[in-house]
Amino acid sequence: MLNSSVFPVIHGHRGCRGLYPENTLPAFRHAVTLGVEVLELDVVISADSQVVVSHEPWMLSAICRTPAGQPIAPDEQLQHNLYALSYPEIRRYDCGSTRHPAFPAQQSVPAYKPLLREVIQDVDRLSLALGRPLVRFSVELKSEPAGEGHFQPPPRQFLDLVVRELQALQVLARTTLLCFDKRILQLAHQLLPGMAVCLLVEDKQPHADHLQELGFVPTVYGPNFPLVSSELVTDLNELGIQLVPWTVNEYPDFHRLLAFHPAGITTDYPDRFLLASH
Predict the structure, then answer these.
(1) Where would I find the GP-PDE domain in this sequence (predicted)?
(2) pLDDT at 278 over 70
(3) Total domains, the chain
């Protein structure tokens, strides 16, 4: 048993992608049942301006089927553009019956891409029914400059749509906004100065350069876990920035990171590391 006072908060990546289809209600429900305290999820925007929970702004051929139940060819997946589809059209696709090839233990269950509001309302009801504290949310806005206008709206519109949903559900205080696109975070910092934000990083550019480009001190720094080093941790501690690396799935990596005392760990297998805390 590890010391719970220094044990990081476990963030369920896309719910619990290693166990249930990613970014679906079954995955989020199972994560809550396991005892996950933070749900990490991704959002994109539909043609009718709905905030949809999805990692890609298209139907990924590896996991999604057409409304007719047919597989989607890899070279045709971009044609199933969520930003060009209304939400009723999006909901007709099945993104749960085809097991993700990288996760052989994943349960295959029919599942659609839910709305952000549906996920929050559903897991809050479940938490209350289980007598658990309400979970927190790490919401990644899937924004990148190259996709603007084709796969996503401009940053201000994207952010406004997401924040409007969070405000309507009164969960801003339980939410951290995540993004690789610094423009989104800069807008959030300007418009909602008290909002918790996380800068996601996956390249080897020095962290000092990333923070300088961002232009302010974020609440959280979220690097791909191999990028975590003593130098990074020392600098983040001096700045008062929390460390939440992603996506940590194996025990050796998990135990290496524990030595750095991260605030959280994002994982596809929350069951593995929640057990270690008891």
Answers:
(1) 8-277
(2) no
(3) 1
